[in-house]
Amino acid sequence: ILFAFFFALAVWVSACPCAFGLATPTAILVSTGQAAKYGILIRKGAAIQHTTEANIIAFDKTGTLTLGQPKLTNFYIIDPNNNLIDIIRYNKTSHSLDKTSIDHIKYILTLLIKGESRSNHPIAQSILNYCTEKFVDFNDDSNDTVNLSDDDIDIEIVPGLGIKMVLKYQNNQSVVYIGSYNLMVNNDISISSHTLTKTQSLNAGGKIVIYISIDKEL
């Protein structure tokens, strides 16, 4: 019996690394999921490992610890000249925006509202809250609305990357992507060097950048 036990123990020890190979990723997946429920966002599993090497932790108190939720701070629209216009400070009556620009902004706000309303991710909720409020600023005329119903939209969640929306209206089809840089790259959506420089600057400042493209155009 003792002889058989040693053989069984040897088999168990040799099989143990496989168990660790499954247990560790599962533990990371569950822990990051639980953290997200409380507004703690962990971008990569490696970040958990790197925390063991940290000697100092700095918190952004205002908004992060005091509110416990992310907030949209910049909202850039790319104009026909490839310039980035931050519409945070704009509304329907300011800065002499023409009707074409207003309609374009309203259309993008509508797409974001429709897409992000299907997600319970903390970032999605912050985008949804801002766009819903901003839409009111640009839509003070009750007869001037964006005609896009839920029946016209098919939404697919792309895990870890963002959202794909297929718009079907008037016998036409349009594809919209909302999400990370990798989502854009994976779907062959080009990002100009000017825009990329700006978004890299935002990332360096600790901000998370979300892109939106309509029919392969950012």
Question: What does this entry show, briefly?
Answer:
With 218 residues, the protein is an alpha+beta fold. It has helices at residues 2-37, 45-50, 61-65, 99-116, 122-138, 181-186, 193-204; strands spanning 76-78, 84-86, 153-158, 162-169, 172-179, 211-214.
How do the helices and strands follow one another from N- to C-terminus?
HHHEEHHEEEHHE
- Please tally the β strands and state the result: 6
Task: Tell me the structural class.
Answer: alpha+beta
Strand order of the largest sheet: 3-4-5-6
Globally, the shape reads globular
Largest sheet: 4 strands, antiparallel
**Mean pLDDT over all positions:** 76
How much of the polypeptide forms β-strand, as a percent range? 5-15%
Task: Give me some keywords for this one.
218 residues, alpha+beta, two-stranded antiparallel ribbon, 7 helices, 15% strand
Structure commentary:
The N and C termini lie far apart (70 Å). Helix 4 (99-116) runs antiparallel to helix 5. By secondary structure, this protein is α+β, with helices and mostly antiparallel strands. Helix content is 46%, strand content 15%. The strands form 2 sheets. The protein has a 4-stranded antiparallel sheet with strand order 3-4-5-6. It contains 7 helices and 6 strands.
Write the layout of secondary structure elements.
Blueprint: H1 2-37, H2 45-50, H3 61-65, E1 76-78, E2 84-86, H4 99-116, H5 122-138, E3 153-158, E4 162-169, E5 172-179, H6 181-186, H7 193-204, E6 211-214
Antiparallel strand pairs: 1-2, 3-4, 4-5, 5-6
Helix pairs in contact: 4-5
